[in-house]
Design a protein that fits this description.
The complex is a heterodimer of chains A (332) and B (354). With 332 residues, chain A is of the alpha/beta class. Helices cover 35% and strands 22% of the residues of chain A. Classes of the chains: A alpha/beta (332), B alpha/beta (354).
C-alpha cells in the first residue's frame, strides 16, 4: 500500500517516515511543499536519507492515489489536507488537534464519513497491548464501578506545540483520548481548568494545566498535563489511575525495566521495556487501512477531545466551569 | 542510555519471527522439528515452533502426544526413531532423566538438539552429550529461556558492551511458590527441588561474568522430591568467577503464592550498577483494592528463544546458547548441590573447549 506522510511540520513526521519505510508492504511517499521558512529542505533531507522521493506539491501527492496518509502538517493546514485525502479515497492518520476550531474538526469528520475513509488520531498511549488490557479489564468490572480517572502527562518544557499552544493543548488530548476510550465515547458535560506560566517564565503559553472533566454518568476525570521542569522518564507519563468502587489500577505506558546508576555521571540508570507506541500506532493504522478494523481514537473522538480542550481554555480564562456544547448532529 | 533505544524491541522481535516465517516458508525449505514430550513446556515450545514456520512432529511416551498434535494441527508419531527420521532437530521437553538417551539417539542420527534445562542431572552425562555433539558436529542449544527475557538480555548487552565496566559483584534472586505437589525423585544430595530453579541465576551469572572456578552453597529445607505443594526451601550460593568477579545466587520456594514469582538482580562494576526487580510496577499496577488478576504480561520469551534457535538450525547466526553453556550450568548447579551436602567449597576446572 502507498502511504504518504504529508508535511514535516510536526516533530514526529521524520519518525513516522522512518518507521513506515521499514514496514513490509508499505510504499512510502513524502511531501513537504515549501518546507519550513528556516529549513526549506527538511523533507527532501529525510527523503534522501531513506532513499525515497519527496514531492513538492500536494496535487502530485493526491494524484499518486495513496491508500493512506499521515497528516503531520501545521494545524492550520490539516482541514484542507484531510478533506483532500478523503476526496482521494485515502484513510487518514492525523496528529492532535484535528483543527483549531471544533467546527473545522467536525467538517473533517464529516468529509471522511462521506467518503467512506477512516479518520484516526495518532494517540500513542491508546495503542499497544497493555492499554487494550486496561480497557478490557475495566469493561469487565476489574475495579468495580469506575468513578474517577486521574491522569498525568508532563513533557519536557522544550516541547513546543506547532500551533503555538502551550501544555494544555499539546498534552491534554493524549490523556483525554484514554478517558474517551475507557468511557466508550461518552461526551463530557462540564470542564474546569486552571493554568499558569511559572515554567515558561511568566510569559507566553501556559506551562501548567490542571483540568477536571465531569461526565453525565457521574464519572470525573482530572488531569495534570503541564510541562516537566526536567526530562524525567519515570514521571513523564502518560500515566493514568483508574479508581473504582472496589479497586484502583494505575496504567503507565513506559514502566521501568532496569534501574541502577552510571558511575561516570552519577546519574540514575532508567530503562523501559515498553513497546514502541509510535510503531504500534502506525502498525495498527496500516493494518486497519487494509482490513477496515478500527484502531485508535476516531475522528469523532478527536472532536470530543477538541471540545473539552476548547472548554478548558475558556475555563482557565474565565475562572468558571464551562458546559461543553453538545456536538452538532453529523450530516446524514 | 536513552529509553528510546529500548523501545521497539518487542515489535522487532515479532518482525524477526515473521521474517523467519517468510524465509522458511518461502524460498528456503521448511525446518523439520521432532518435539519429544507433551507437557506444558512442550506446548509452549510447539506454539513457538509453529510461529517460526517449522513443521513439527510430536512424540511422547506418556500417551499425550496425540491430543496435543490434534489440538495444534501437527502430526504425532509413535516412536522416537520415527520422530528423528528426517528431522533437522529434536526438541527435548521430557523429564530430565530421559534427556541423555534422547540426545544420544539424536546425535547418532545426526539430528540437531534443543534441550529443556537442565541438559542432565549428572555432570558425567552432560559431558558425554556435549562431547558427542561436538564430535559429530551436531548443534546443541539448551533452552535456558531466562536469557531471552528482556531485562536479562539487556543486562547482558550492558555488561558485554562495557557499560558496567569491569564486573565486580552480581546478585540474582529467583523465588516462587510451587502450586502443585512435587513429583519426581530428586535426592537432597542432588540439590532436590532447588537445582532447576538455581540454574536460572547460575546461568545468568555465568553469561555475564564467565567461567566459575569455585562454588559454595547452603541449602535449607526439606528439598528432596516428591514433596508437598508449598514446600519451603532456600538455596544460597556464592560463585567465584575466573576473572575474580563474584556472584550470589539465591533460589527460594516460598510458603505462599503472594507473590507467585519474584526475580531480582543487582550487578555492579567499575562503571556503575544495573538492577531489576519484578516487584517494580509495570504497565498495569493494582494500587488498592482487589482487582483479581488484572494486569498485562508481555510476550513470553519462548517465541524469541525458539525463533533464534530456528534461525541457527537453518544456517543463520549462532544462538546465544550452545553446548558449553549447557555443560557449565550443570557443572555449577551440581557443584552447588555437592557443596551444600558437604559444607565445603567446590573447586571447578576452568572449561577448556575440547
Amino acid at each position: 500500500m502507498k502511504v504518504a506522510v504529508l508535511s514535516f511540520a510536526h516533530e514526529r513526521a521524520a519518525t513516522y517516515a522512518r518507521l513506515l519505510h521499514a514496514m513490509p508492504g508499505v510504499e512510502l511517499v513524502l511531501a513537504d511543499p515549501g518546507g519550513a521558512a528556516d529549513d526549506p529542505v527538511r523533507g527532501p533531507r529525510t527523503a534522501a536519507r531513506l532513499g525515497v522521493s519527496c514531492v513538492d506539491n500536494w496535487d502530485e501527492v493526491f494524484a499518486s492515489r495513496p491508500g493512506a496518509v499521515v497528516v503531520t502538517s501545521e494545524v492550520a493546514a490539516r482541514r484542507e489536507l484531510v478533506e483532500r485525502a478523503a476526496e482521494a479515497g485515502a484513510h487518514v492518520l492525523c496528529e492532535h488537534p484535528l483543527a483549531d476550531k471544533g467546527t473545522d474538526a467536525q467538517a473533517m469528520v464529516d468529509a471522511c464519513t462521506a467518503a467512506g475513509v477512516r479518520l484516526t488520531l495518532a494517540s500513542p498511549a491508546c495503542a499497544g497491548p497493555a492499554f487494550a488490557a486496561v480497557r478490557q479489564g475495566i469493561a469487565g468490572g476489574a475495579v468495580g464501578e469506575l468513578t474517577t480517572l486521574l491522569g498525568t502527562y508532563n513533557t519536557p518544557a522544550t516541547t513546543r506545540h506547532p500551533s503555538g499552544a502551550g501544555a494544555l493543548g499539546a498534552n491534554a488530548p493524549f490523556l483525554l483520548d484514554m478517558v474517551d476510550a475507557v468511557l466508550g465515547g461518552e461526551p463530557a458535560a462540564q470542564v474546569y481548568a486552571q493554568t499558569n506560566t511559572v515554567l515558561s517564565g511568566g510569559t507566553g503559553a501556559e506551562s501548567a494545566a490542571l483540568v477536571t472533566v465531569r461526565y453525565p454518568s457521574g464519572v470525573v476525570a482530572s488531569i495534570d498535563c503541564g510541562w516537566s521542569p526536567a526530562a524525567n522518564h519515570a514521571a513523564a507519563g502518560p500515566v493514568m489511575t483508574f479508581i473504582g468502587d472496589r479497586a484502583s489500577v494505575e496504567f503507565t505506558t513506559s514502566p521501568r525495566m532496569l534501574g541502577g546508576v552510571d558511575a561516570a555521571t552519577a546519574a540514575p540508570r532508567w530503562e523501559t521495556s515498553a513497546t514502541d507506541l509510535c510503531s504500534a500506532v502506525l502498525e495498527d493504522f496500516v493494518a486497519a487501512a487494509g482490513t477496515g478494523q478500527a484502531s485508535g481514537p476516531d475522528g469523532a473522538s478527536g472532536v470530543r477531545t477538541l471540545r473539552i480542550v476548547e472548554a478548558a481554555y475558556e475555563s482557565a480564562r474565565t475562572g468558571r466551569s464551562v458546559d461543553v456544547a453538545a456536538p452538532p448532529s453529523t450530516r446524514p | 542510555m536513552a529509553s528510546g533505544e529500548r523501545r521497539g524491541q518487542n515489535l522487532t522481535r515479532v518482525s524477526e519471527v515473521r521474517n523467519v516465517v517468510d524465509r522458511v516458508g518461502g524460498a528456503m525449505r521448511q525446518l523439520e522439528v521432532a518435539l519429544i514430550g507433551a507437557g506444558l513446556i512442550a506446548q509452549l515450545h510447539l506454539d513457538a515452533w509453529i510461529a517460526a514456520g517449522a513443521s513439527v512432529r510430536v512424540h511422547s511416551d506418556d500417551g499425550r502426544a496425540g491430543d496435543l498434535a490434534r489440538e495444534r494441527g501437527v502430526r504425532a508419531v509413535g516412536s522416537l526413531a520415527d520422530a528423528l527420521d528426517g528431522a533437522d532437530a529434536v526438541d527435548i521437553c521430557t523429564p530430565t532423566s530421559s534427556h541423555h538417551e534422547i540426545a544420544m539417539a539424536a546425535i547418532a542420527a545426526g539430528v540437531g538438539i534443543v534441550c529443556e534445562k537442565p541438559l542432565s542431572a549428572s555432570v558425567a552425562e552432560a559431558e558425554e552429550i556435549v562431547t558427542a555433539a561436538e564430535r559429530a558436529g551436531v548443534p546443541l542449544y539448551p533452552a535456558h529461556d531466562v536469557r531471552f527475557g528482556p531485562p536479562f538480555a539487556r543486562l547482558h548487552e550492558l555488561v558485554a558492551g562495557g557499560h558496567v565496566g569491569t564486573g565486580a559483584v552480581a546478585r540474582f534472586t529467583f523465588s516462587a511458590y510451587h502450586p502443585r505437589p512435587w513429583t519426581g525423585h530428586a535426592s537432597a544430595r542432588s540439590g532436590g527441588m532447588l537445582t532447576d530453579q538455581m540454574l536460572h541465576g547460575v546461568d545468568l551469572a555465568y553469561w555475564i561474568f564467565g567461567d566459575v572456578v569455585r562454588v559454595h552453597a547452603s541449602y535449607q529445607g526439606e528439598i528432596a522430591t516428591p514433596a508437598p505443594e508449598g514446600a519451603v526451601a532456600t538455596g544460597t550460593v556464592i560463585l567465584t568467577h575466573a576473572t575474580g568477579a563474584l556472584s550470589q545466587v539465591v533460589s527460594r520456594w516460598t510458603a505462599t503464592p503472594s507473590p507467585p514469582i519474584r526475580v531480582a538482580f543487582h550487578v555492579s562494576g567499575t562503571g556503575g550498577t544495573v538492577s531489576y526487580d519484578t516487584a517494580w510496577p509495570q504497565e498495569i499496577h493494582v494500587v488498592d483494592g482487589e482487582a483479581g488478576s488484572f494486569g498485562h504480561v508481555g510476550e513470553p520469551p519462548f517465541a524469541s528463544e525458539i525463533g533464534e534457535f530456528a534461525r541457527g538450525l537453518m544456517g543463520g547466526p549462532e544462538p546465544r546458547l550452545g553446548p558449553r553453556d549447557a555443560l557449565a550450568a550443570v557443572r555449577i548447579t551440581q557443584a552447588a548441590a555437592e557443596s551444600a551436602w558437604t559444607g565445603q567449597a567446590v573447586e571447578l576446572p576452568v572449561e577448556v573447549v575440547a
